[in-house]
Amino acid sequence: MSLDVGTPRSETAPPVTPVRTAPRRSRSRLASIGLHGALGLASLIAVFPVFWVVVVSFKPNSKAIEATPSLVDESSLDNYRDVLSGAKGAFLTWFGNSVLIAGLTTVLAVLLAASTAYALSRFRFPGRHWLLLSFLVVQMFPFAVLIVPLYNILLNMGLQGSALGLVLVYCSTAIPFCTYMLKGYFDGIPADIDEAGRVDGLSPFGVFWRLVLPLARPGLAVTAFYSFIVAWSEVAFASAFLSASDESKTLAVGLQVFVQQNRAEWGHLAAASVLVAIPAVAVFYAVQRFLVSGLSAGSVKG
């Protein structure tokens, strides 16, 4: 029996049919105009209250309550001069207290939240999931419910009426959210980086401080901004845990002296409000390039 062994046939692969994607529907001109008009209207609605406060800040108190104050007539810097000079409240003292409390809160909250989030992301230990769940549960309680127990705790510790006690209170409310946010961000950093650092002789803390934290700058920026805003603009805790003297008030509490039961100095209040908003806006612009990536990374990984 003979076998006819010839040249092997070349097998050609079947042609690949290109996948046709649905054509992207272009938006009509009318729909585009309507969308941009709605966005512009929403922007005007959001910006108008801020614009109105700025306009009122240049008006005397007698003209500040008018329905349509003029943008030019009787405009002056007298309100800002009175607020900054101390003629209307100890603004600079309040400003210094707010900077101190907000700065300490930001540093402590970010450091503690970052170390806790790193431990939750890299290590497996008993009670880990319950600890994460407790951070979420803490966020469900309104701040007003916590005033009485926190007041008793600070009173027993001898920190009632002090700036340090208020910093600890702010940290207790900011750290749970910051920890959960940073934990999701650390999950997105490969664990191989930690192993490579240990091979090079770094300690666990050295790996965390020198390798992981620099890669987590967007997440750190988000948590730092959140901690700063919590301490900068909060009123309820500051009113309850600080003494009533002007030397210990923060800006958010000090603004209440311009609006009392028998009088209201709207021009000075508006001027002080503009000055209070400037540091918050400056911090926002300093970290804005990290906010989008930090928020998205911390929200989709857990």
Structural write-up:
- It comes from Saccharopolyspora griseoalba.
- Its main location: membrane.
- 69% of the residues lie in helices and 0% in strands.
- It has 302 residues and is mainly α.
- The radius of gyration is 29 Å and the shape is globular.
Which terms summarize this structure?
302 residues, mainly alpha, 13 helices, disordered C terminus, transmembrane helix, transmembrane, cell membrane, transport, MetI-like
Q: Structural class given helices, strands, pairing?
A: mainly alpha
Share of helix, binned:
55-70%
Number of strands: 0
Termini gap: 70 Å
Order of helices and strands: HHHHHHHHHHHHH
Poorly predicted regions are 298-302
Provide a brief overview of the structure.
The protein has helices at residues 29-57, 61-64, 78-85, 91-122, 128-140, 143-157, 163-187, 192-199, 204-215, 217-233, 236-241, 251-254, 266-300.
Question: Can you lay out the helices and strands and say which pair or pack?
Answer:
Elements: H1 29-57, H2 61-64, H3 78-85, H4 91-122, H5 128-140, H6 143-157, H7 163-187, H8 192-199, H9 204-215, H10 217-233, H11 236-241, H12 251-254, H13 266-300
Transmembrane segments: 30-54, 94-118, 130-151, 163-182, 266-287
Family: Belongs to the binding-protein-dependent transport system permease family. MalFG subfamily.
Membrane topology: Multi-pass membrane protein
